[in-house]
Amino acid sequence: MRLQLVVIGLAGALVLTGCSGDGKPSDDLQIVANPVAATAPVSPATAAKPAGRVLPAAGVTAMAMDASTRTLVVALAEPASLRLYNLDTPDAAPRDVPLAGPAERLTITGGHAVASIPSKSQLARVALPTGTLAPLEVAGQPAAGREAGNQLLVAVRDRKALDVFDGGTLTKSISGKIYSADDVITTTANSTVVLDRLRTAVFAVDVAAGTVGEGLRAGDGATNATADGFGRVLVTDTRDGALLAFSTNPLLMRQRFPVPGGIYGITYDAKRNLAWVTLTERNEVVGFDVRGGEPTEKYRFATVRQPNSVTVDEQTGQVAVGSATGEGIQVIAP
């Protein structure tokens, strides 16, 4: 049976503030009294042989590709480190970069990997492919860091804020309305969006003005997000099993596409307009073409167990999937 797309405009999206019947402000994003952030569904034992090849590795916590330096960056939990693979010589010994603690999220900008280490109140900025480490101390629990021009934007979970650094110096801290700043996404439309897992919502942020703008619900259990090539933010709604698409100027939910099976990790191939998502309940990774009016499935592969992490090499189209349970790093050539 063909899955059906739901397209939602302004009237169908819940905006941050409204009015209750007595004229007092209400919070349409507060869906339960004590919200709990969604997490990756637990995977069963693998029932099919993982596609491609599998490299041995301990529990993978995050992954990212840098096409410019031909480097696959893998964050490992034990020992806490980044492992750097040369994409052109995958059989060569990787380079390990020790970290102060396990990295929760990785982003790539301008030949650098930015690893968030919330347990140590630190971001690790690692030059690629050399592995030169430059730590940055952050007040609180930095959940994600992303470079935007000369600035470094840092989502700080416990402080419910977006910190802005310039040259290693904190220049402003932006807060308001956010319950938990879990990721920051910058789009091709020059927009900045913060993902709030606890509130299962996305918020527009005006970095120059230092303000948090409108917020919209992102399903019933948003977990991960990425930007696509059309100025949109793509979000995995793990609890409801859906791939969501938000435009950013203005912030509107444009698509909700059902994806059963424990949708969790996400990455985007801008060259091929493919959004790759992992399904942890099925140990699968699926590639969707997002150019049209609704996502179209192009690829589906069996993966290693607990495929929480995924990334893609835009030069070759190769996809890498990381097992959070120690079953390795899987590399697939679609």
TrEMBL record:
<protein>
    <recommendedName>
        <fullName>DNA-binding beta-propeller fold protein YncE</fullName>
    </recommendedName>
</protein>
<dbReference type="InterPro" id="IPR015943">
    <property type="entry name" value="WD40/YVTN_repeat-like_dom_sf"/>
</dbReference>
